Amino acid sequence: MKALVVYDSMYGNTETLAKAIGSAITGEVNVRHAGEVSTSDLQSIDLLVVGSPTQGGRPTKAIQDFVNEIGEPLRGLNVAVFDTRLSTKWVGVFGHAAERIADALQKRGGILAAPPGAFVVGGKEGPLKDGETVRAAEWGRELSEAKG
Asked: 132 or 92: which carries more pLDDT confidence?
């Protein structure tokens, strides 16, 4: 399998998870910041994974820009999404980045390969809650098994 993991990270937590997910996916995997990816990078992959911190119920601007710039390369492509989020109840009122990313990728023709991954940070700047990096790697392995 050829996979591309695209992420944005404010404080390094989402980047840590992106790397854990990428290392757990079997095959040829590239893990890259959203600002380093072009639509041509999507042409020869089997799986696109996109991750972002949740900021005000949305993905970061870098991820929104990445998603808005892609189009036809997603037609029929397997996609998976994840986010980092706080676990406090009031945050859920605004929604989370993963669901918005999933909706946007599906509107562009992507096929959701798994339910969105949600990983918890202890505060705005983190750190990740204990065990989240391990859970992210497990999620990456599950993606491999489902799409391998």
From this structure: 132
CA dihedral (109, 112, 113, 117) positive or negative: positive
**33: nearest Cα among 55, 8, 64, 50:** 8
The number of distinct structural domains making up the chain is 1
Q: Give 95-126 pLDDT, tens digit per residue.
A: 899 999 999 999 999 999 999 999 999 988 99
CATH of the domain at 19: 3.40.50.360
What is the arithmetic mean of pLDDT over 46-67? 96
The residue segments making up the domain with residue 104 are: 2-147
47 bridge partner residues: 3, 78
Alpha-carbon span 51 to 42, nearest angstrom: 16
Residue the block writes with tokens 């065990």: 131
Residue 119's nearest CA partner among 30, 26, 20 is 20
Please count the other Cβ atoms lying within 10 Å of the Cβ belonging to residue 94.
Answer: 11
